[in-house]
């Protein structure tokens, strides 16, 4: 009886050793140390996030860094205080605003964080001045956006925008826009909160007869229905829209900003490697992989033309 028990315990110990070795084999490829693990957290399973993560992961693996990929939805179900106990990593990477906001709240300040594919780093609390937080934004500053508009459409002298007086983000954007408005430009701002409906606010927006409608990435203002309504009015009244994303331009904005997820992942990987090597990085977000996008079909319909230089630097939608 005792011999059978010893054999059973011996068999279980042997199986445990095999399982443990397999875990080590798959968890630590090559000669990577466990304290150099990098965990990538995706905001969702959307293709752009996967593309950025794929590029980032490939670069890190080539540098013999151990990488694990998780979804923010899975992590958000857990107690944030237990995050670093359950998942051990020297550095975390957030891909997308949802993941960035969660990790910034959940991770101790001693843990390094890199982010990419984030529309508004400031709103997620990422522009904190900490030396161990760095990343890539999917947009450019308001000043840079106005410079792009001036180059692409030099005849513009007035812009109109929607905002919410009940939103701190909207009010901050309004201040930022006024501070960087080009000389001799006029800003027409329409407060959605004072209108009876979004439709009324959009009608008021176009009633200001501005040269261009400017938009910002803000889910409190823009959803699919709002975008469709805005773009329909734009076509009817032939007033161009500057879209905050490539998909916005593809849907019907004349021009705007587009992002390359692969380039975002590539730049984020460089930041990760620098932080792991103990190098200092710039804490201010950069906009790597962000460029001008032009919808030529809509531009032609409105009779708008662009210089050869602008066309050569832009991604063209609907071009030959």
Would you give an account of this structure?
- There is one protein chain.
- The protein has 320 residues and is an alpha/beta fold.
- The chain folds into 2 domains: 22-138 and 261-289, Rossmann fold (3-Layer(aba) Sandwich), CATH 3.40.50; 142-259 and 291-317, 3-Layer(aba) Sandwich (Rossmann fold).
- Helix content is 45%, strand content 18%.
- The chain contains 13 helices and 12 strands.
- It has a 7-stranded mixed sheet with strand order 7-6-8-9-10-11-12, with helices on both faces. A 5-stranded parallel sheet has the order 2-1-3-4-5, with helices on both faces.
- It is globular and about 55 Å long.
- Residues 2-36 have low confidence and may be disordered.
Provide tags for this entry.
single chain, 320 residues, alpha/beta, Rossmann fold, seven-stranded mixed β-sheet, five-stranded parallel β-sheet, 13 helices, globular, disordered N terminus
Please give the structural blueprint.
Elements: H1 2-27, E1 38-42, H2 47-62, E2 67-71, H3 72-76, H4 83-86, E3 91-95, H5 97-106, E4 112-118, E5 133-137, H6 142-152, E6 158-163, H7 168-180, E7 186-191, H8 198-207, E8 212-214, H9 224-237, E9 241-243, H10 246-251, E10 255-259, H11 261-276, E11 290-295, H12 296-302, H13 308-313, E12 315-317
């Amino acid at each position: 009886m005792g011999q059978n028990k010893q054999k059973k315990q011996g068999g279980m110990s042997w199986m445990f050793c095999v399982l443990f070795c397999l875990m080590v084999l798959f968890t630590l490829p090559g000669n990577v140390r466990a304290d150099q693990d990098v965990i990538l957290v995706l905001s969702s399973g959307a293709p752009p996030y996967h593309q950025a993560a794929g590029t980032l992961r490939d670069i890190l693996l080539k540098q013999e860094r151990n990488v694990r990929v998780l979804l923010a939805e899975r992590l958000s179900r857990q107690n944030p205080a237990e995050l670093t106990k359950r998942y051990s990593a020297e550095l975390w990477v957030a891909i997308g605003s949802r993941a960035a906001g969660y990790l910034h709240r959940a991770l101790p300040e001693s843990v390094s964080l890199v982010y990419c594919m984030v529309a508004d780093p400031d709103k997620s609390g990422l522009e904190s001045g900490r030396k161990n937080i760095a990343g890539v934004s999917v947009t450019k500053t308001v000043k840079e956006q106005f410079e792009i508009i001036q180059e692409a459409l030099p005849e513009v002298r007035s812009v109109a925008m929607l905002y919410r007086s009940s939103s701190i983000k909207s009010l901050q954007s309004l201040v930022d826009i006024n501070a960087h408005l080009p000389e001799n430009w006029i800003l027409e701002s329409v407060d959605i909160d004072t209108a009876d409906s979004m439709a009324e606010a959009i009608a008021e927006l176009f009633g200001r007869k501005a040269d261009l409608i400017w938009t910002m990435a803000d889910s409190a203002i823009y959803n699919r229905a709002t975008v469709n309504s805005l773009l329909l009015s734009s076509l009817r009244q032939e007033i161009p829209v500057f879209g905050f994303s490539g998909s916005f331009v593809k849907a019907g904005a004349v021009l705007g900003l587009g992002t390359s997820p692969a380039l975002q992942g590539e730049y984020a990987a460089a930041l990760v490697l620098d932080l792991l090597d103990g190098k200092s990085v710039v804490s201010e977000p950069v906009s790597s992989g962000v460029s001008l996008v032009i919808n030529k079909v809509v531009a032609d319909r409105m009779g708008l033309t662009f210089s050869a230089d602008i066309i050569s630097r832009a991604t063209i939608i609907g071009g030959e």
